[in-house]
Amino acid sequence: MAEWRALKNIDPHCFACGQGNSHGLHMRFFSNGERVKSRLVIPDHLRGWHTLVHGGVLATILDEAMSWAAIHLTGHFILTQEMTVRFKKPVHIGEEIRVQSFVNERVSPKKAGLKAEICNMSGDVCAESSGLFALFTTEDFIRKDLVPAHMLEAMNESMWRSA
Ligand SMILES: CCCCCCCC(=O)SCCNC(=O)CCNC(=O)[C@H](O)C(C)(C)COP(=O)(O)OP(=O)(O)OC[C@H]1O[C@@H](n2cnc3c(N)ncnc32)[C@H](O)[C@@H]1OP(=O)(O)O
């Protein structure tokens, strides 16, 4: 298995991975060509019930992790089409968590099924997700006019393209 290497963040404003978004999660991702991973501590302002992390924030983390895996492990740009989340154990504000994701199924040339899970430092799975992702060629994604072409080109250069 290849070594884990850091993946390049492109959009500084993204709520999940933007390093310049002062309200965001500042997620950084690593891949070994088969999986994508990240670790983070949820900031205090994203709490839900007392000291618990809001479930919608955990869903965002899972969506982001599956998205990065879908992009870097299939070599396509993506849109999340659907996802399900199972919240299994509470996650607390200030607790370090780890998330990992992978391509579970190549449903068709334009669709992939992804999975992700969030674990606490004891190794317990706290939340897990499955998602269906629409896969786009660079040309098709540029045509959709959702993301500036220069950002897509910068990301294109750093993709793994291993699945
Ligand atoms: C690094 C940063 C990572 C950040 C990741 C964050 C992930 C996200 O949150 S994405 C945001 C949330 N998701 C969305 O907004 C998706 C909204 N949904 C959609 O756009 C559609 O339902 C979609 C594309 C997912 C699935 O569409 P689907 O039902 O398969 O196709 P359909 O509705 O028939 O097609 C819609 C259009 O997209 C085109 N299209 C659909 N899939 C593809 C594809 N894989 N390749 C090319 N074109 C496609 C169709 O040709 C059609 O185009 P047109 O309107 O010109 O006819």
What does this structure look like?
The chain is α+β, with helices and mostly antiparallel strands and 163 residues long. It has a single domain, classed as Hotdog Thioesterase (Thiol Ester Dehydrase, Chain A), CATH 3.10.129. 21% of the residues lie in helices and 34% in strands. The protein has 3 helices and 7 strands, in the order E-E-E-H-E-E-E-E-H-H. It has helices at residues 55-74, 138-144, 149-156; strands at residues 5-6, 30-31, 36-41, 77-87, 96-108, 111-120, 125-136. It has a 7-stranded antiparallel β-sheet. Strand 5 and strand 6 (111-120) form a beta hairpin. The protein is globular and about 45 Å long. The model has no long low-confidence stretch (mean pLDDT 93). The structure holds octanoyl-coenzyme A (CO8). Residues 14, 17, 63, 67-68, 79-81, 110, 134-136, 140 line the site of octanoyl-coenzyme A.
Topology overview:
Layout (H helix, E strand, L loop, with lengths): L4 E2 L23 E2 L4 E6 L13 H20 L2 E11 L8 E13 L2 E10 L4 E12 L1 H7 L4 H8 L7
Antiparallel strand pairs: 1-2, 2-3, 3-5, 4-7, 5-6, 6-7
Octanoyl-coenzyme A binds next to helix 1, strand 4 and strand 7.
Supply the key terms.
alpha+beta, 21% helix, cytoplasm, 163 residues, Acyl-coenzyme A thioesterase THEM4, Thiol Ester Dehydrase, Chain A, single chain, 7-stranded antiparallel sheet, EC 3.1.2.2, membrane, Thioestr_dom
Helix content range of the residues, please? 10-25%
Question: Runs with pLDDT <50, length 5+?
Answer: none
The helix/strand class is alpha+beta
CATH superfamily heading? Hotdog Thioesterase
- SSE string: EEEHEEEEHH
Number of E-state strands:
7
Number of domains: 1
Text of the CATH class: Alpha Beta
Mean pLDDT, rounded to whole units? 93
Protein name: Acyl-coenzyme A thioesterase THEM4
Subcellular location: Cell projection, Ruffle membrane; Cytoplasm; Membrane
Pfam family, one: 4HBT
Enzyme class: hydrolase
